[in-house]
């Protein structure tokens, strides 16, 4: 497997990839009514960075996962981590998280946050096994909390902020 910065050619793949992963939530919670995923081109237009995971290091290998990290004025937030369900359990998510840590450190960052479901196996427990801890949401996450409230995410389970230092 390989993790690298997303290229312009990768951007159209990210929204459909996230939508594929979101189907797991539909299987778990039923009809979600969630909007379609944010297009990769839109993600690339905000401060932060995008990384992609491929199945191997072969040039042109298909993208099977991605991480989108926001720069919140010097604080870092993992806005999205998605791995195609057909490729889960093979270390792509863990490799993406390690690459995120490396990139945040290279940019002079320290603390990294995320928002997730506390009790969904591939959410809170997944991150906890990789050193993340539950925290009170810092003030800088207020816009994310407001967006989650508008979308009604908490109706499906407890939402938490997590942090990795």
Pick out its properties:
165 residues; Aminopeptidase; seven-stranded mixed beta sheet; 33% helix
Report on the structure:
The protein has 165 residues and is an alpha+beta fold. The chain has one domain (2-164): Gcn5-related N-acetyltransferase (GNAT) (Aminopeptidase, 3-Layer(aba) Sandwich). Helix content is 33%, strand content 27%. It is built from five helices and seven strands; from the N terminus they run E-H-H-E-E-E-H-E-H-E-H-E. It has a seven-stranded mixed β-sheet. Helix 3 links the parallel strand 4 (75-83) and strand 5. The longest helix is centred in the first third of the chain and has 19 residues, at 11-29. It is globular and about 40 Å long.
Please render the helix and strand layout as text.
Blueprint: E1 2-5, H1 11-29, H2 40-44, E2 48-54, E3 63-72, E4 75-83, H3 92-106, E5 112-117, H4 124-128, E6 133-135, H5 142-151, E7 159-164
Parallel strand pairs: 4-5
Antiparallel strand pairs: 1-2, 2-3, 3-4, 5-7, 6-7
């Amino acid at each position: 497997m390989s993790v690298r910065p997303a290229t312009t050619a990768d951007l159209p793949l990210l929204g459909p990839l996230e939508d594929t992963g979101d189907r797991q939530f539909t299987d778990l919670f039923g009809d979600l009514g969630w909007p379609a995923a944010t297009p990769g081109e839109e993600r690339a237009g905000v401060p932060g960075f995008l990384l992609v995971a491929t199945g191997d290091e072969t040039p042109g290998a298909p993208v099977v996962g991605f991480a989108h990290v926001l720069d919140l004025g010097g604080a870092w937030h993992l806005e999205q981590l998605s791995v195609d369900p057909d490729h889960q359990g093979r270390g792509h998510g863990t490799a993406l998280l390690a690459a995120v840590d490396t990139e945040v450190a290279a940019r002079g960052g320290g603390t990294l946050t995320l928002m997730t479901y506390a009790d969904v196996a591939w959410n809170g427990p997944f991150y906890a096994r990789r050193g993340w801890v539950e925290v009170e949401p810092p003030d800088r996450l207020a816009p994310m909390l407001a967006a989650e409230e508008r979308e009604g995410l908490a109706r499906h389970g407890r939402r938490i902020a997590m942090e990795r230092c």
